[in-house]
Amino acid sequence: MTKEHAAVPSKPHVPARTIKWDHYRELKNDSTIKRHLPATMKLNKQSLFSMLSEYTSVYLKPNRGAFGVGVIKVQKIIHEKQPRFLVHEGTRKKTFYSRNQVYAFVLANMVNKDYLVQQGIDLLRWNERPFDLRLMIKKQSDNTWLNEGFVGRVAHPKKIVTNIRSGGTAVSIDDLLAPYTNVTSKIETKKKLNLLGEQICELLEKKYPGIQLFGVDLGLDQNLKPWIIEVNNRPEKICWKCMLELYKKSSESSHFIFY
Does position 5 have pLDDT exceeding 80, yes or no? Predict the structure, then answer.
């Protein structure tokens, strides 16, 4: 596939009311899926620094929300005298030298009071920018779930979130995986992503009977292990547009499955 990508401008929008904590609790009950879940807790001062004692970086995100609105990254930097904390919110980066300073900044920049703290994953990068993959997984006529296409989402150069409406760029999965895979490993990686996405939808369908479409966001670490970023039960329509542009398909054409 030739290199082609579609940059979509950011537009203000009302976030969908996805409840991330409910999804996390549901998914962690499955032993297979649990291996792909970043550690996640409800945010308070104790949980934030407990997670930072285990992981180099964490992401703070609204329990209800979408488009990357309100997401904050906190990174612990080991220093000879005392640890430092690098906080990245929007396009701003700030360094703090105490836990109190960090938590005060977090409280001042939360978009609501209901937040989660999630283990940071060292995602693969495209042009030095982290990326993840949106899988648009639809219920089929035979009641199975099938991924109708990948939308690779690359973060804005100055931001931590990959969401298209927050300035991210849509890039084909083939271009994104090219530096990290050969023909065989790329096929295997796509199969793993599709299988995990379909397993997630089969499990969550029990919680949302009658739902026909999920947007599943998966990231890949340096070992090509898939990680579940989040699941959207009302995925944004812009991802369909990006998918059609990336693969030059019409909405009436056959499924966009890339095994």
Answer: no
Task: Check the CA dihedral 124-36-53-90 and report its sign.
Answer: positive
d(CA 90, CA 111): 12
Instruction: Report, in angstroms and rounded to the nearest whole number, the Rg of the chain calculated over CA atoms.
Output: 18
Contacts of the segment 36-39: beta carbons below 8 A, 24+ positions apart? 36/196, 36/218, 36/225, 36/226, 36/227, 36/228, 37/227, 37/228, 38/118, 38/119, 38/120, 38/121, 38/227, 38/228, 38/229, 39/118, 39/119
How far from 239 is each of 136, 182, 208, 236, CA to CA, in Å? 8, 27, 21, 6
CA distances from 128 to 7, 124, 131, 179, 234 (A): 17, 9, 9, 12, 30
Could you give the 3-state DSSP secondary structure of residue 249?
coil
The model's pLDDT over 133-183, given as tens digits with 9 standing for 90+, comes to 999 999 999 999 999 889 899 999 999 998 888 888 989 999 999 999 999
At 109-125, the pLDDT tens digits run 999 999 999 999 999 99
The amino acid at residue 128 is: E
Using an 8 Å Cβ cutoff, are 150 and 258 in contact? yes
